[in-house]
What does this fold into?
Amino acid sequence: MATADADQWRRRVARRPGDCCAIALPPLAAENKHYSPGLSNHALSIPGLGSLKHVCQDQAQVSIPKLCVDSFAQPQYTPYMTVCDGMRLCSSYKTTYKTAYRQVYKMETSTRTSYICCPGWTQRHKRAKGCLQPVCSKPCVHGRCIRPDTCECRKGWTGDVCDTDENECDADAHGCEQECVNSKGSFICTCRAGYRLNIDGKTCKATGEVTDAKYEALMLRVEELEQSMKRMTKMVADRPNDGVLPTLPPQIDRIGSLSEQISILEERLDDSYAAVAMNAAKFGFCN
It folds into this structure.
């Protein structure tokens, strides 16, 4: 059969209904995902599973190889004898074609549907129905994740991931009567010298104890007034006696008042020292 006849046969065979595809397997088609809206207050109804929150459909276009039967033109070679130049016998062959069939694979495209957690949500455990666990891309340091990328901070902390200490002493809501001291994630109330913190942890009560600083300041003030009194007394003594009684300066009354306060302070100090001595005699001093 001539070459033109063979080509025509191949074209005719290729148009036969049995011809389905090529032999070479093409690569799988890339997946094309389509997510349904995963709204926080909406649920997806899935046959056999019911209504599940934060679940989205994952639809992917996939190519699946399918076995089929393909027809093709198969050549047949038949030998025969012929007369050549010089009246010689020569052997030759002729080519004929017949329709043959073979198994090949063709690629079929289909849509595969699966169900996954919507972005920002995950399952609480592998067997959980629905996706009820929110996901935060950064961990909530001093808090918990309540919505996708949303942290709820514990008291005393602030910031997007609850890593910033909140200074409660800057606000008036701390409730400390005297002094507020900020700490990591909290605060404490303290009292000034001469006061102690009540059981409520916020208000202060006077202790009645005399601190060394107050005693020294009071003694220094008395000494200054005594020096001033000596100078004034000397000035009065140096004045000529004209029969008029001198007028005492007002500092005399202040000196008397301070002297009384010193006496009271000394009594309190004596009582404190006596109490310490009794405790030492009863329990012993600490090393």
Observations:
- Confidence is low (pLDDT under 50) at residues 1-41, 275-287.
- The longest strand covers residues 55-84.
